[in-house]
Structure to design on (419 residues):
DNA sequence: TCTGGGGTCCTAGGACCC
DNA sequence: TCTGGGGTCCTAGGACCC
């Protein structure tokens, strides 16, 4: 049996752990630059605030219902996620961390255990040790565990936040209950097409022929169908090193000057390179893009992008920044108002398996330099040592007016308890 | 004024090989 | 009437996830 464990309204719940007076009150968490709603407490959902709501369009609603608004605090969420995962790990022989707030557990060889008892214990222990509410779904396949989890989340009182799909009867009942657009792996496009052929529920989907599903939804669709039939087909996945690393941001205002954009692009590449070294890889190529604000029909639009193949694999910040700056020169056009840019590094190889080239290679002296740089920045805080080409004035420029303290990752932000 | 960020996988079609 | 057959690799675009 598999379990899918999912934290309820995760970001909102994290904020609530340290502000217990907000229990029962509507909370929303905003994206970077305080742009859009990316998490909502149940109370906020009930008021009718949709996912992705644009913050400035909902200001009045926030005021009217006294919605507590938070800027995203990813340091807090990442740390809370880590705590939850480390507790879950103790319950099953195998775990796959699927996202910041979800994990699959595989209970291989645990046939003697009473899953309901185990599930209840997960819920109460995570709640007690971290303050985060979770839901648990058990089933014979990953896709069905997702379904079971949804039921647990939808009916927390009846299920005690833990639902099990094991019998054929419970499987059919669950699939007939689940709308097709809510099935894991069925997005908007597939839902539309499925609707056209009369598929309304997950059960209807399982009645389609493999051939039709293969033709219209590729092998992924076929795997999903079998998983929903109760034949475990979607496997547990190992934690693989990343295949690409992205750093991109919308700017808090439009940027016009090359130098301004360059500063940002350099910083994005610095951040990518740090993550790249953390997984002990070098990259062979990167993609650089910049764009104007596509929401503004009144302004002239431009999207520039370029794929750069490096002459040699590298993870040196100095080298990568150099190539990024050169690449930016080729796509930057004067006269546009830029709203967003980003760097995606890819084609990784392990650091210790770099093939030397005949004419040009990564500067070997950079290796030690980067090691020292990473050590200093780890010890003394991010961006303590910067390149001259980065912006020297401030680290964060994003609009983040309602950010909560980093309660669990910064000593200055620890909560005080007065007895 | 104001609209997120970071990933993965699959497929079709073109270019190329012998 | 008829124009070989069997491959690989790469890329862009589309779909999905959180």
């Amino acid at each position: 049996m598999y379990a899918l464990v999912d934290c309820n309204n995760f970001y909102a719940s994290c904020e609530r752990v340290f502000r217990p007076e907000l229990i029962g009150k509507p909370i929303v968490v905003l994206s970077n630059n305080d742009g859009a709603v990316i998490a909502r407490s149940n109370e906020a959902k009930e008021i009718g605030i949709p996912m992705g709501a644009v913050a400035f369009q909902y200001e009045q609603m926030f005021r009217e219902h006294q919605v507590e608004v938070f800027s995203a605090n990813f340091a807090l969420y990442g740390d809370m996620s880590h705590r939850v995962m480390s507790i879950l790990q103790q319950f099953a022989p195998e775990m796959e961390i699927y996202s910041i707030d979800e994990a699959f557990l595989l209970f291989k060889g645990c046939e003697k255990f009473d899953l309901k008892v185990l599930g209840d214990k997960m819920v109460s222990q995570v709640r007690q040790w971290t303050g985060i509410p979770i839901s648990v779904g058990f089933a014979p396949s990953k896709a069905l565990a997702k379904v079971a989890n949804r039921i647990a989340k939808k009916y927390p009182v009846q299920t005690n936040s833990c639902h099990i799909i094991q019998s054929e009867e419970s499987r059919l009942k669950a699939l007939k209950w689940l709308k097709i657009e809510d099935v894991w792996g069925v997005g908007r496009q597939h839902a539309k097409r499925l609707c056209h052929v009369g598929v309304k529920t997950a059960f209807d989907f399982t009645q389609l022929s493999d051939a039709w599903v293969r033709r219209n939804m590729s092998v992924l669709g076929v795997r999903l169908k079998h998983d929903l039939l109760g034949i475990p087909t979607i496997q547990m996945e190992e934690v693989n090193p990343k295949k690409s690393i992205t750093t991109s941001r919308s700017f808090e205002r439009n940027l016009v000057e090359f130098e301004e954009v360059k500063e940002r692009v350099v910083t994005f590449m610095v951040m990518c390179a740090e993550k790249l070294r953390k997984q002990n890889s070098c990259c062979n190529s990167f993609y650089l893009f910049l764009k104007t604000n596509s929401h503004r029909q009144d302004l002239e639009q431009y999207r520039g992008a370029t794929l750069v193949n490096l002459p040699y694999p590298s993870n040196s910040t100095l080298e990568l920044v150099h190539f990024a700056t050169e690449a930016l020169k080729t796509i930057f056009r004067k006269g546009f108002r830029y709203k967003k840019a980003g760097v995606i590094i890819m084609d990784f190889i392990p650091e210790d398996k770099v093939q030397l080239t005949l004419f040009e290679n990564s500067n070997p002296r950079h290796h030690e330099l980067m090691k020292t740089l990473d050590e200093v920045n780890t010890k003394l805080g991010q961006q303590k040592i910067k390149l001259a080409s980065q912006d020297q004035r401030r680290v964060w420029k994003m609009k983040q007016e309602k950010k909560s303290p980093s309660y669990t990752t910064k000593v200055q932000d620890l909560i005080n308890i007065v007895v």
User: Anything to note?
Assistant: The longest strand of chain A covers residues 338-350. The first helix of chain A runs from residue 10 to 17.
